[in-house]
Amino acid sequence: MSGEKFAKTIQKEKLPVVIYEHSSNMIKRGKGIDIKLQENKAVNIAIEGGKIGGILIGPREVFSFWRTVGNTTKRNGYKDGRIIHQNKIIAGIGGGLCNLGNTIHLLILHSPLDVTEFHKHSDALRPTQGKGYPSVQALP
User: Fold this and answer.
1) Is residue 126 within 8 Å of 74, Cβ to Cβ?
2) How far are the Cα atoms of 89, 109, 111, 112, 118 from residue 20, in angstroms, in the given order?
3) Which pLDDT band, with edges at 50, 70 and 90, does 115 fall under?
4) Would you say 58 and 1 are in contact if contact means Cβ atoms under 8 Å apart?
5) Can you give the residue range of the structural domain that contains 27?
6) 58, 109, 110, 134 from 106: Cα distances, Å
7) Closest by alpha carbon to 89, among 26, 135, 33?
8) How many domains does the chain have?
9) Which residue among 12, 96, 101, 124 has the highest number of C-beta atoms inside a 10 angstrom radius?
């Protein structure tokens, strides 16, 4: 409705230049951490990797995390992961996608892209990490 052109082109071939890389442990272990919810988070992120991986953001295009993700439902293959509801950590469909959103945001901060919109996420799950789900725009 806003007239923005959203990025949706997927390129299978890798581009020749890497600007920044990041990796982290997908499955967190420790006291009070439900391993099944961690494994489900990995499934949820893998679903998204298939949607986001290879996406090209062209000049004046906008990448929107949630527009790309779509509906996180059981029917779409998502599983229960850790989510925050009313300031409490509970199991919920699509849980764990905040990890992917935070990683994308970190990568964008190390790129020539501009963050044009950023929705904050509670820091209850990982208070030392960044917050939010980015929308970014490639400038001409």
Assistant:
1) no
2) 31, 10, 7, 11, 20
3) confident
4) no
5) 5-137
6) 19, 5, 7, 10
7) 33
8) 1
9) 96
Ramachandran angles phi, psi of 103, nearest 5°: -65, -45
Whose structure tokens read 């996420």? 121
pLDDT bin (cut points 50, 70, 90) of residue 129 is very low
CB 137 within 8 A of CB 62: yes
123 and 131 in contact (C-beta within 8 Å)?
yes
Which residue would you say has higher pLDDT here, 102 or 54? 54
Nearest one of 37, 31, 130, 131 to 82, comparing CA atoms? 37
Residue that the structure tokens 């949607």 belong to: 51
- Residue 121 pLDDT class (50, 70, 90 cuts): low
- Which amino acid, one-letter code, is at 29? R
Q: Which residue bears the tokens 């990490």? A: 129
Q: What tokens does 43 get?
A: 């499934």
Mean pLDDT value of segment 117-124: 65
